[in-house]
């Protein structure tokens, strides 16, 4: 299905790469300029990180580090889309980002106010995420988009109730997976940056301006965030950032016919989630640990792997999965 024939995407500027580079550069500059101010404001308001009991002892020094840093990279992305693109398709992706951020703000708010380390209750969080997924799915269906199960293989499309149901499940799964990954300085941001860079490459090839704008803005803003989130972190994204990124990943990937490739692009997110599920299951059934700790990054920390090297290895894995996805998509016609 070619984007140009369906009308789903309008052509990008005459120089799409330059257009994306401009958006990314402006987002990066805005982030580098804004994060020192945001860090100071969050610290003054006592919006500090609380450390979970299962975290390694080395993480105790992170207690009190300003959190909710996702506010700025979400705001920068929203501003970029308002300035450079106002299509309905772009609105769906930006809505997913902002709606996820709102759920994260509610969670972080309860966290920093001392209402438990975990903020919202599990059922509350899943309920909010399901509602966001419902709205995102409706939005994707309204803009007239169909979702091929396996692009280029002649599989049936998803639309109507199908895309809405898949959207709900995907938003819950992906946003929680990114959230679990956000446990080491620079890990969730680094992996997300790589995945959005891959989506940007596909969007450029498809001439999908809305996704180009969102992806370029997030790549630039996340790069700026990493300047302050790299070990030792001066600010954390919080659930505000991780849930927003997860929701945006679902919407952007769906727009590019890559929704079903997210497990490969987000291979680190999948590994982190499976490590928790498997470890908890083994402990409950056999009263022993398969891993020293979970999510997976805590296991490697317990084995003595330093944070910087751990993050470098995980981001490299994310880059490999993303590259394979882009290459497969091009070879199978997912990239128009």
From TrEMBL:
Its cofactor is Mg(2+). It is found in: Cell membrane; Membrane. InterPro entries: Glycosyl_transferase_4 (IPR000715), PNAcMuramoyl-5peptid_Trfase (IPR003524), PNAcMuramoyl-5peptid_Trfase_CS (IPR018480). It catalyses: UDP-N-acetyl-alpha-D-muramoyl-L-alanyl-gamma-D-glutamyl-meso-2,6-diaminopimeloyl-D-alanyl-D-alanine + di-trans,octa-cis-undecaprenyl phosphate = di-trans,octa-cis-undecaprenyl diphospho-N-acetyl-alpha-D-muramoyl-L-alanyl-D-glutamyl-meso-2,6-diaminopimeloyl-D-alanyl-D-alanine + UMP. Pathway: Cell wall biogenesis; peptidoglycan biosynthesis. Mg(2+) binds at residues 179, 239. The keyword Cytoplasm does not apply. GO terms for cellular component: plasma membrane. It is a multi-pass membrane protein. GO terms for molecular function: metal ion binding; phospho-N-acetylmuramoyl-pentapeptide-transferase activity; UDP-N-acetylmuramoyl-L-alanyl-D-glutamyl-meso-2,6-diaminopimelyl-D-alanyl-D-alanine:undecaprenyl-phosphate transferase activity. It is an enzyme of class 2 (transferase). GO terms for biological process: cell division; cell wall organization; peptidoglycan biosynthetic process; regulation of cell shape. Its EC number is 2.7.8.13. Belongs to the glycosyltransferase 4 family. MraY subfamily. Catalyzes the initial step of the lipid cycle reactions in the biosynthesis of the cell wall peptidoglycan: transfers peptidoglycan precursor phospho-MurNAc-pentapeptide from UDP-MurNAc-pentapeptide onto the lipid carrier undecaprenyl phosphate, yielding undecaprenyl-pyrophosphoryl-MurNAc-pentapeptide, known as lipid I. HAMAP family: MraY. This is Phospho-N-acetylmuramoyl-pentapeptide-transferase. The lineage of its organism: Bacteria, Bacillati, Candidatus Dormiibacterota, Candidatus Dormibacteria, Candidatus Aeolococcales. The gene is mraY.
